[in-house]
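agent> step 3/5: call structure_predict on target 'Putative thioredoxin' (Zymomonas mobilis).
agent> reason: downstream docking stage needs a structural representation; sequence fetched in step 2, passing through unchanged.
tool.input:
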Amino acid sequence: MSTLGLSSTDQKAIEKFRREAVEPSETKLVLLYFTAAWSNPCKTFGEMLANLAKSYASRGVVLCTFDIDENKIIADQLRVQSVPTVYALFQGQLVADLTPANSEQQLKEALDQLLKQLPVVADNDISGDIEQLLPIGNKALEDGDAETAVAVFGQIYDMTPEDAVVAGSYARALILAGQLQKAEALLAALPEEMKNKPDIHRADTALALAKQAMSVNVDQLENLRAKVENYPDDDEARFALACDLIAVSDRDGAADQLLAILAHNRDWNEGAARTKLLQLFEVVGIEDPWVAAQRRRLSAVLFR
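tool.output (status=ok):
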């Protein structure tokens, strides 16, 4: 773009465009996002695009935002007709109009395709970002904040898909959010050497319990409660009740039932009650205070 005969405002806008967009595009894939303060759609779309760009930063994606009212000459030169508009720039050339991809999934698919085709230089120094994001993601999981957990661990997983701890945490976040099919697909696609890792096993267990929860109904649960109350030595009914209580997230009730089986007959069904209790511990988290308390109860039953 020539600056000859332009106002100082337009010259500054062009210099900024060169500095922040054209120069980085020599090695990076630059997303040119054109927005406007008066546009309501831009508010939600811009936030989504910023989060997406951050998750792709380690793969060489850079986001540059331009307000069309403040950068009219840039918008005119690039023939921006409406907002929001998103172009992809590489080595100073527009390589794609991403505006039609108006959902996060569509944008991801478009970016993945571009990154496969272009020699974009990835940024491998991502340890600082991960260190900042991990505590946020872990707290969201502990607090049951599914939306935040999925967003944060999704970003971390995009940066380090080979990390079993991250993959397992992302899968558990998806399970917490009710996205069971996506979690199952993620776990199934992992390399074989990762599938035996403790964090992946924990996610597998959480997925199995979540699937079971889908088949539990209130009548079934109440029938099992009544049966256990009337026949307290019926370990099979008590075990079924414990499984359903786990499925509906009543871990206290489930632990009570499993410990009752162990107190009555610790070897019942080849130690199934102890195995199920340990699975519950695994899903909750070995370092969780609740698990520590239940372990003390388990020891009291087993070594009385």
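agent> step 4/5: record observation. Strands lie at 29-35, 61-67, 85-90, 93-97.
agent> proceeding.
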